[in-house]
Structure formats: C-alpha cells, structure tokens
Amino acid sequence: MSNLCVLPFTGIEADPMGNCKVCCLSTKTIPNINLKTNTLTEAFNSDYMYGLREEFLQGGKPEECIRCWAEEDAGRKSKRQHTLDKFGNFEFNESKLVFLDLKLGNICNLKCRICGSFSSSKWAQEELDIYADNQTARDNLANGRWVRESEPFWNDLRDILSNTRFIEFTGGEPFLIEEHFDLLQFAVENDLAKNIEIHYNTNGTQFPERGLELWPHFKCVEIAVSIDDIGPRFEYQRYGAKWDKVMANLERFYELRNTNRNITLQLCMTSNAQNFYYIDEMCHWISEQRFNFVYFNVMHDVWYFSISRLNRKAKDLIYDKLKDFHGPYSHEVRNLLQFMQQGADSDCFELVKTLKNSDRIRAQRFSEHHPEIAAAIGYV
Questions:
Q1: DSSP label at 310?
Q2: Which of 192, 211, 271, 362 is surrounded by the fewest CB atoms within 10 Å?
C-alpha cells in the first residue's frame, strides 16, 4: 500500500467558495456538498469520501490525486508524502476528522498574478473591469461571503473541535478574516487550544495583534509567509504588497518566534512561469533568512502559470541557466527542472494575454522587471 494517503481518513478542505475536497491539490470537489447549507462532518462522511478511502486501501492511485503523482514522478516530495510524515503511524482502519484545511472565504487585500477572484475579493473587481460581463467573477465576489451566512457550519465546527488536532488557515488572507480569531477564542475558552496545531499561509502584509493574545495557548503555530520573488519582481507578482513592509513584518514575526516557543516560521515559495527563471537569486536570498522550514511549492492552477506548460523557448532558456546551479537548495531546483520538462509545452498565448490584461489595468509592463522570460514567452 505504498500509494496510501492519510488525508482521506483524517481531513477535509473547505475552499473559498464553500465547496469541499479531500485536500487542496485534489482535482475533484465532493459532490452535492456546499458549506452554505452543509457541514464539514457531512462532507467527511459522504459517499465520495468513503469511496476514495476504499480506492486507496485497494492500492489504487485515484485520478483526482494526479498532482501528487506528477510531483513524485519528478522526484519531488508531494503533499501526500509530507502528510504521511506528519501523521506518523496512523491506523487506516479507522477514519476520524482531525485535520481541517479552512479557506474561509476569499477576503484578501492583494491581487497576486497567480491568483484570481476565486481566492481574492480584490481580484473580482479587476476581472470585472477587464470583462464587464464576467459572471464567474461576479459569482465569486458574492459566494466568497459564505462564512458569514452559514450558522450550521460554525456550529458543527465548534462541535468537532474537541477531536481536531491540526488546522490550516489559508485564504484569501487569513489574518483579515476575523471569524477565524473567534474560533480560536472558543478553543482557548474551552481548554481545547493546547491540543491543536495551527498552520497559516499569509501574504506577509498583515501583523495581527489579536493573534498575539491567542497563539500562545496553542500547541504549535506555524506561520508560512508566501514570498515568490524579491524586490520589484515581488511587488509586480504580488500586486498591492510592498517589499519593505513585508520585510518589516517578517522581522516582527522573527521576534515573535524568538519569544514564543510554540511559534515557527516557514517560507512558502510557489514556482511559476513568472519567477522560475530567477529562482537562483531567490535561493540565495532564502539562505540568508531565518526560517524554520522552507517549502518549494509548485503552481498547478491556473494551468498557464505552471512551469510545466511554458513554451519550448522559455523552457530551454530556463534549463540552460539553471542546469548547472549548485547554490543553496540546488536539489529543489533540479527537481523543479524535471517537473518543468515533463509537462506538455503550450504556446503561452493564455499566459501572455492574462499578463497584458492586468498590465493594462495596472499601468505596468511584465517585461520591465522580467525581461528575459518576457521575451521567451512572446510578451512584446
């Protein structure tokens, strides 16, 4: 049973629109479940989840888990493998909801280039500015508010919190979602916090004062700061963020970690079509920082931002530059190069169109700070 994944037996993901999946990398949502009207318990006990567990127990490789299989084929450590390490010697004969991946709506203050209205309320208006009849953006703007409209969800969440051991808060920007702090307050007041580990993915622009009061009560709090590049390229890719402000907040997080034994810091860097050419510079920058752990994420959706779907000219340019890289994290770079090469080339038409649409609205040019990769993908 070397293909086993622990997540179908232990966890559930709530996405920003209130749909549920077994995890954030799954390509399938759980049918007939939405947290506007359903609960996490109902999602976990659904026929779909029972079927997925059985497929894993029979030694199968479910098709919705293709992203983990692709990363493993490239020599990378997948989410499936990371989670197996985290849960240790889990008994697969009993399913128990102990891991929650909660994306509590799409409230966010940034318009990151690899994101969209699904995960950012700020993006929704820009998508409507580009295409006024964009019904998807309009729906995402409305549906991203589900966390304020679903009392059954919150009642169920408080009920299952006594068994919960791990919670991930991603986004949107979790530090802007006040309701999640109310949940932490409930855990503290009911003496549950000491058994719960928390993981955040934050864009680094926020330093939440309320967290300072609540986090010391929890077993562990891991703050993963999403930084994909440095300086002007960072500000272009994560539109609305200021590099100096994020670096100042990072210093505050370092100080917080140094005075609280239960807090750790992670860097989450997502390799994508914009930044991969410059990853050698990023690796040197990372090596100078003080993170407890560094996670090299890889972009799958939106597909045309994936390094695996670049055109051949861009792939050759990147490969020639990075193939002999021997600096810090060179093993990660090699695996990412293999992941890039094994993907089907595209013509980069959708990538260039998307970059240009946002550039027009934002009065920017991708080629200004990314000239080499801009030329390779045909951005003129």
A1: S
A2: 362
* Model pLDDT for residues 295-327, shown as the tens digit of each residue: 999 999 899 999 999 999 999 999 999 999 999
Cα–Cα separations (whole angstroms), residue 172 to 23, 145, 176, 209, 356: 16, 11, 8, 18, 24
Query: How much of the chain exceeds pLDDT 90, in percent?
Result: 84
Instruction: Give the tokens for residue 292.
Output: 């407890």
Question: Can you say whether the dihedral through the CA atoms of 85, 88, 94, 95 is positive or negative?
Answer: negative
Find all residues with CB under 8 Å of 214, minimum gap 6, and list them. Answer: 181, 184, 185, 188, 193
| pLDDT exceeds 60 at position 1 | no
DSSP symbol at 77: P
Length of the chain measured in residues: 380
- Whether the ω angle into residue 380 lies within 30 degrees of 0, i.e. cis, is no
DSSP string of 179-219, one letter each residue: HHHHHHHHHHHTT-GGG-EEEEEE-SS---HHHHHHGGGSS
What local confidence, expressed as pLDDT, does residue 107 receive? 93
Cα–Cα distance for residue pair 58/51, rounded to 1 Å: 11
Predicted pLDDT of residue 148: 87
Q: Which residues pair with 201 in a beta bridge?
A: 224
Among 156, 158, 151, 214, CA closest to 185:
214
- Distance (Å, rounded) from C-alpha 178 to C-alpha 107? 10
Residue 27 C-alpha from the chain's centroid: 14
191: left (phi over 0), alpha (psi -120 to 50) or beta: left
pLDDT the model gives residue 92: 64
> Measured in whole angstroms, how far is the alpha carbon of residue 87 from the centre of its chain?
20
Rg of the chain over CA atoms, in angstroms? 21
For the segment 41-58, the average pLDDT, to the nearest whole number, is 95
Q: Are 299 and 271 in contact (CB under 8 A)?
A: yes
Cβ neighbours around 78 below 10 Å, total: 20
